[in-house]
Design goal:
By secondary structure, the chain is mainly alpha-helical. The protein has one domain. The protein contains three helices and no strands.
């Protein structure tokens, strides 16, 4: 395997790791349900896709027998992630999640009742 191919695979792994970390961080830190839903479904899917693409590229270029597991995982991921995000968003819309009061421990958007 040449250095150019190895560098391309390392860049794919680095980009995938960055997007996985970004998706995990957005799940933990974002405040509203719909924001928390958007971060992991987009960023983490892209990150796992980059890691799987690097794995497929490594196995193709190293001369090992091709295994369909990476392609099956990729297909399963790209089919299930949008469907599950869509179903969670529909459930949240039917429960009127955007109109609910903030949870305890979060900053209120209006005036603090303890300052009166």
């Amino acid at each position: 395997m040449s250095w150019l191919v190895a560098i391309a695979l390392v860049l794919l792994l680095a980009a995938g790791s960055f997007f996985i970390l970004l998706g995990s961080y957005s799940l933990m830190k974002l405040s509203e349900f719909f924001k928390r839903l958007h971060g992991p479904t987009k960023a983490t899917t892209l990150g796992v896709g980059c890691v799987l693409l690097a794995s497929v590229g490594y196995h193709l270029l190293s001369g090992s027998d091709p295994q369909p597991r990476e392609l099956l995982v990729t297909a399963f991921l790209f089919i299930t992630a949008p469907i599950s995000a869509h179903l969670m968003a529909k459930a949240a819309l039917s429960l009127h999640m955007a109109e609910r009061p903030p949870q305890p421990g979060t900053e209120p958007t209006g005036e603090d009742p303890g300052t009166r």
